[in-house]
């Protein structure tokens, strides 16, 4: 008979630390699913590729509950329908269970296919602090062939901002005039405060010259561009994780706690709209994300 030896204290402490880390990683994964920073299909794929991963160790019940609009009742009905036991973890699903779950996910959360030919008008949107401004600035510096639209805004310039370079800083009366004269392709009140809009003339001129035009605007603006120019290429920038998005917002240090909380609430709503976009790009690394945007501009032929 094998003699049972006492587990050394250090091993026990290390195992406890590991368990805490894994619980944290699972909590973070659940947040990413809830906020749609990651698709359920991606999580299932990772769980299948490596059953020992955080994704693989996620309980099927927690996985389903983290999906938008699924409560305990629906969860149980889905498990019944797919013949999956509630004690299963994602990494431990059988081949047939996995296929049934994948089919159900694809019906419930369809992955958008890029549409046919798109125009050279590119829109970059995404939640607050995901890095839209940083990626756009990188493109401005490294890809001067791309025309970066300069927006008009009623907000006051910040130190270092130059009128006509970062924004056209205008007062309310001038913004009203721009709207009345139909000089804006789109406009919106952003963050409940100032008005921002895209001047139409410089864009038309750049497109007429055959140049690619990039607009860095908010979700409301992106929707207006879609209506005005259905062939525009809509790009949604995603954070690597929800926690990273929060870190970036805090790290930027430009908003107080209350304003940050408000923006994060808006971010959740905006993330839920990502399916309206033609392409999703994860901003893990600025240069890589910028390169992906530039790549899309090259493949947009019209
Ligand atoms: N709809 C719309 N949104 C814009 C435009 N220009 C900038 N924005 C958005 O307005 C927000 C700018 O917020 P703010 O913090 O004041 O300035 P930032 O530091 O330049 O991002 C970002 O979400 C931009 O995407 C525009 O012309 N139209
Ligand atoms: N890929 C990245 N990795 C790490 N930090 C980033 C990355 N992209 C942007 N940031 C940082 O995140 C913060 C928010 O970026 P910003 O461009 O202001 O976001 P947005 O324009 O989307 O509101 C900034 O402090 C920026 O330096």
Structural class: alpha/beta
Can you tell me the CATH class of the largest domain?
Alpha Beta
Distinct ligands, ions and cofactors found in the model: guanosine-5'-diphosphate, adenosine-5'-diphosphate
Oligomer type: single chain
Distance between the termini: 76 Å
Main sheet: strand order: 2-7-1-8-9
The count of helical stretches stands at: 12
User: How would you describe the shape?
Assistant: elongated
The CATH superfamily of the largest domain is known as P-loop containing nucleotide triphosphate hydrolases
- Tell how many strands the DSSP assignment holds: 9
Largest sheet geometry: 5 strands, parallel
Beta-strand percentage range = 5-15%
Named at the architecture level, the CATH assignment of the largest domain is 3-Layer(aba) Sandwich
Q: Determine the mean pLDDT.
A: 93
- What is the number of independent domains? 2
The helix fraction, in percent, is 40-55%
Catalytic activity: GMP + ATP = GDP + ADP
Binding site for ATP: 126-133
Keywords: ATP-binding, Cytoplasm, Kinase, Nucleotide-binding, Transferase
GO molecular function: ATP binding; GMP kinase activity
């Amino acid at each position: 008979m094998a003699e049972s030896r006492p587990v050394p204290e250090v091993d026990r402490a290390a195992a406890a630390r590991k368990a805490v880390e894994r619980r944290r990683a699972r909590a973070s994964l659940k947040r990413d699913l809830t906020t749609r920073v990651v698709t359920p299909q991606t999580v299932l794929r990772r769980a299948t590729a490596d059953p020992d991963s955080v994704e693989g160790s996620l309980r099927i019940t927690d996985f389903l509950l983290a999906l938008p609009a699924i409560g305990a009742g629906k969860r149980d009905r889905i498990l019944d329908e797919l013949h999956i036991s509630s004690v299963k973890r994602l990494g431990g699903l059988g081949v047939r269970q996995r296929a049934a779950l994948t089919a159900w996910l694809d019906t419930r959360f369809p992955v958008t296919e890029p549409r046919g030919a798109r125009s050279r008008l590119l829109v970059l949107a995404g939640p607050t602090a995901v890095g839209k401004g940083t990626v756009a600035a990188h493109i401005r510096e490294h890809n001067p062939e791309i025309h970066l639209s300069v927006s008009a805004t009623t907000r006051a310039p910040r130190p270092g901002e130059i009128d006509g370079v970062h924004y056209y800083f205008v007062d309310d009366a001038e913004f009203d005039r721009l709207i009345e004269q139909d000089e804006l392709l789109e406009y919106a009140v952003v963050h409940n405060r100032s008005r921002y809009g895209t001047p139409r003339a410089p864009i038309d001129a750049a497109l007429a010259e055959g140049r690619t035009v990039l607009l860095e605007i908010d979700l409301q603006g992106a929707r207006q561009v879609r209506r005005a120019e259905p062939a525009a290429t809509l790009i949604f920038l995603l954070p690597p994780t929800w926690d990273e998005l929060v870190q970036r917002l805090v790290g930027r240090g430009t908003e107080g706690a209350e304003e940050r909380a408000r923006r994060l609430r808006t971010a959740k709503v905006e993330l839920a709209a990502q399916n309206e976009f033609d392409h999703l790009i994860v901003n893990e690394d600025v240069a890589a994300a910028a390169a992906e945007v530039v790549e899309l501009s090259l493949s947009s032929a019209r």
